Amino acid sequence: MSHTLLIYSTNDGQTKKICDAIEQKLTSAGESVLALPLETAHTVDWTTINKVIIGASIRYGHFNKALAAFIKQFQPQLEQRPNGFFCVNLTARKAEKNTPTTNAYMKKFIATSPWTPQLQAVFAGALLYSRYRWFDKVMIRFIMKITGGETDTSKDIEYTDWDKVAEFANEITNANSIKS
Ligand SMILES: Cc1cc2nc3c(=O)[nH]c(=O)nc-3n(C[C@H](O)[C@H](O)[C@H](O)COP(=O)(O)O)c2cc1C
Q1: Which domain holds residue 39?
Q2: Quick one: 105 and 130 in the same domain?
Q3: Which of 22, 54, 59, 165 to probe ligand 1 with, by most ligand atoms within 8 A of CB?
Q4: By the 8 A CB rule, do 104 and 90 touch?
């Protein structure tokens, strides 16, 4: 049995939640999905994988360091099958900053990663004040203040556009060969 591998790098769970939604769509389109956190993805048997998608969130301007290490280690495995990458961050809550060519984190990723993902997407994440530790709450509130976002820390807001996530899942379903 061949699986579509979904790998997620998450801190507060939003990237996992997006992977869950993609998994649901792919499963209803008849795909067999294996979803793994980045931390255990190195254990995968690549002979059972026919597509691979990685999703990762941004924290203080950066992806988890383990992401670059994983890509370096498994670049051939990523490139040998239909592949994709999506980035989750709060900058993407703004319409003019929510595509692979307009989101600074995605642009930097594409410019610096040795792997150029075939499918690319950017999704707005969630602002979860109620879950943040004191320091993070202060920092995020400050960032929201200077970028015109929500500063009321009694509110949690999910900015993720689930229709856009569903569209990306369709793209994954339709990606059945490597573009040359
Ligand atoms: C401590 C912290 C730092 C963050 N730094 C950034 C940032 O620099 N830029 C940004 O656009 N979003 C930033 N975010 C927003 C996250 O990317 C967003 O909340 C996302 O949903 C997190 O996804 P995750 O739950 O999968 O980790 C930050 C969030 C937290 C909690």
Answers
A1: 3-125+160-174
A2: no
A3: 59
A4: no
